Amino acid sequence: MLPTSCLVAILAALSVSSALTIPQPPKHHSTVSAAFHEIDINPHPFLRLSNSPSDVPESGVHEESFDVEELAEMDAHMKDYKGWDLDEMRLISIQRGDQMEEEFKWVTEYDKIILKTKGFKFMDITDAPTLGMANMLSPGGGAKKLYTYPQPSSNSSTHAYTTAHLYPKLSTDIMKANLIKFSGFRTRYYRSETGKQSQQWLLSKIKEYAQVNPHITIKEHPHSWGQNSIVARIPSAHAIKMKSSKNKDDGDKKKKTEKDSVVIIGAHQDSANMWPFLPAPGADDDGSGTTSILDAFRVLAASSYKPTHSAVEFHWYSAEEGGLLGSQAVAKVYEEDKVDVKGMIQMDMTAWVKKDTKEVIGVITDFVDPALTKFIAAAVHEYCDIPAVPTKCGYACSDHASWSKAGYQSAFSIESTFEDSNKAIHSSGDTIEHPEFSFDHMQQFSKLAIAFAVELGGLDVPKK
Ligand SMILES: [Zn+2]
Q: Which end of the chain is more exposed for a tag (fewer CB within 10 A), N or C?
């Protein structure tokens, strides 16, 4: 990372608002640093800290709801916990109040845990403090062009082929078997041993599905904490052709070095209990998104899908729960390599249909790209069996935020309106054992993922 003084200088040079002041890391700190006490933002609606009956989530007993005394007890427990260096200083960005401004603070790893229990959303920018700077500082104010998106139509040959030949191959049985396995790890917390094991299992599944298509490449994006992010790339037909003609023809070099644009479908593989040493099955958050996009990937691979315009990538990020760490690290490399990302969609929580509500797909409208979000709503209308509804999620809500920070266009779809989403997440109760947990609902997101791929990546409809 850059020294703090250097980052301050960059920000000063950009005459960023005075809200963007970066404090020096404190030399001495107590277990709960002063920085935490200064932050007062409305608590995240997911999480409850009072034990009054009205605060018990409807989805069941929330054994990890705490009052202040219990928090103090946990504080004592955490100090004894030998697993992690909880005093390590981290730089986070957080949104203050209803303002749009970001604020930067040095906090401890322990503070991050406490902030999460309080429902604060933040990005831990310690390892990628300058994400987005290169794009911002390039001539014209942005390295990449802004994309406009097609209007999906149910009368197109792409739509006809997708619904007739790709959708029937999706399988809730396969998805369910995968999610049972994936949520069976004690926790997929990114710094834990089982978090590493769950990543290795996911990697082996992705490789198994990719086997039928030799053009697909699978890469691990390594992280210092051990649970790696995973990138599966389906290259465009153009790239495959260029690669195969490479040795035969030295002709048009420009064409050969021309980089493919890429469309990205993402989910996060890690899970977290509010208290990282407690079990975190993470079936919905985000085992559901992980396995929804995994089934879309399986079907596209098995169908020998070759995108015509752009490569299609599936990303499974590590450490979303640590402050979007994995996705920032991946986005940083794409920014540095000047990768032309045409659009990114995040799927975080895809399974929950709250009792007595209509089944919908929530399309997040804050902190996202408006053009891509409009496209997502239209794609849901044409390609899914349930309607899209607009909803808001707040600052740094999931990994799409890393891509927009890097200067790319990103969007976010979720299981319902934010208000009707699963309240059992970040607890040992985030399992598939709820009447509201629906694999059919998850499959709507697999359909959306495929629609995103074929509409933006392009589809060469096979001739009969
Ligand atoms: Zn999540």
A: C
58 is a domain residue? yes
Q: Check whether 181 has a pLDDT greater than 50.
A: yes
Q: Which domain holds residue 330?
A: 139-457
pLDDT in tens, 60-101: 333 345 566 666 656 655 655 555 678 889 999 998 766 667
d(CA 187, CA 429): 12
- The pLDDT value given to residue 95: 86
- What's the gap in Å between 197 CA and the centre of ligand 1? 19
Inside any domain, residue 134: no
Mean pLDDT (whole number) for 223-228? 94
Residues 69 and 190 occupy one common structural domain = no
Please tell me the distance between residue 53's alpha carbon and the centre of ligand 1 in angstroms. 26
CB proximity list for 5: less than 8 A, separation 6 or greater: none
CA of residue 2 to ligand 1 center, whole Å: 28
Ligand 1 mean position to 68 CA, how many Å? Answer: 25
169 and 259 together in one domain: yes
Q: Which residue has the tokens 């496209």?
A: 375
Residue 276's pLDDT is 80
Mean of pLDDT values over 295-322: 97
Domain end, chosen from 85, 101, 126, is at: 126
Q: H or E segment at 400?
A: helix 400-405
Distance 121 CA to ligand 1 centre (A): 11
d(CA 119, CA 110): 14
How many angstroms separate the alpha carbon of residue 320 from the centre of ligand 1? 7
Give the range among 82-91, 106-115, 153-162 with minimum mean pLDDT. Answer: 82-91
Q: How many domains does the chain have?
A: 2
User: What per-residue confidence (pLDDT) applies to 119?
Assistant: 83
Q: Is 278 found in the same domain as 367?
A: yes
Distance 52 CA to ligand 1 centre (A): 26
Query: What spacing in Å lies between the alpha carbon of 268 and ligand 1's midpoint?
Result: 7
Q: How far is the CA of 161 from the centre of ligand 1 (A)?
A: 32
Asked if residue 143 has pLDDT above 90, the reply is no
Say how many Å lie between the CA of residue 396 and the centre of ligand 1.
11
Q: Are 19 and 160 in a shared domain? A: no
Query: What phi, psi does 421 have (nearest 5°)?
Result: -80, 170
Which protein residues have a CB closer than 5 Å to ligand 1 (ion)?
A: 285-286, 348
Question: Distance from the CA of 158 to the center of ligand 1, in angstroms?
Answer: 31
The CATH number covering residue 280 comes to 3.40.630.10
Residue 246 burial (CB < 10 Å; 0-12/13-18/19+)? exposed
**pLDDT beyond 60 at 295:** yes
Distance of alpha carbon 424 from the chain centroid: 19
464 pLDDT above the threshold of 80: no
| Spatial distance between the Cα atoms of 413 and 247, rounded to a whole number of angstroms | 43
